[in-house]
Amino acid sequence: MGRLPPPQDEAARRAASPGLAASQEARREALYMALAQVPPGRVVSYGQLAELAGLGRAARWVGRSLSQLPQGTTLPWHRVIAASGRLSLPAGSVSGAEQRQRLRAEGVLVIHDRVDIRRHGWRPMEHSG
């Protein structure tokens, strides 16, 4: 049985394959475009956002990407929650408190760190012209 090569860090992978960096950037752009369309007062799950962006079943990748958004971004990251309706950012954290405050300011009911997806979930086909 052969040995697997040692894992490469992201910078090494990008240097070895310039197309990978472009591909990752294209994925992020698709994610950001889909996220920007989520209207105030509505929420989406990480998995739903991945599908809307054409990224398949990349919910975890979406979560990682959103956690790396720059401070002060205008993207509505606070509208992305777990598929169960649970807010995934800890209540005691600065970002968790900000998410709860922003959602409530938009009229989203947050009860016991949960949002009723049937009531506040975004269904693009219902909301398009």
Question: What are its keywords?
Answer:
single chain; 129 residues; mainly alpha; Arc Repressor Mutant, subunit A; two-stranded parallel sheet; 2 strands
Overview of the molecule:
- The chain is mainly alpha-helical.
- It has a single domain (14-68, 80-127), classed as Arc Repressor Mutant, subunit A.
- Helix content is 48%, strand content 3%.
- It has seven helices and two strands; from the N terminus they run ααβααβααα.
- The chain has helices at 10-16, 18-36, 46-52, 59-67, 94-105, 117-120, 124-127, and strands at 44-45, 80-81.
- It has a two-stranded parallel ribbon.
- Helix 3 packs across helix 4.
Please describe the topology of this protein.
Blueprint: H1 10-16, H2 18-36, E1 44-45, H3 46-52, H4 59-67, E2 80-81, H5 94-105, H6 117-120, H7 124-127
Parallel strand pairs: 1-2
Helix pairs in contact: 1-2, 3-4
CATH names the topology as Arc Repressor Mutant, subunit A
CATH architecture: Orthogonal Bundle
Taking pLDDT < 50 over at least 5 consecutive residues as the criterion, the unreliable ranges are 4-8, 10-14
Strand-residue proportion: under 5%
* Morphology: globular
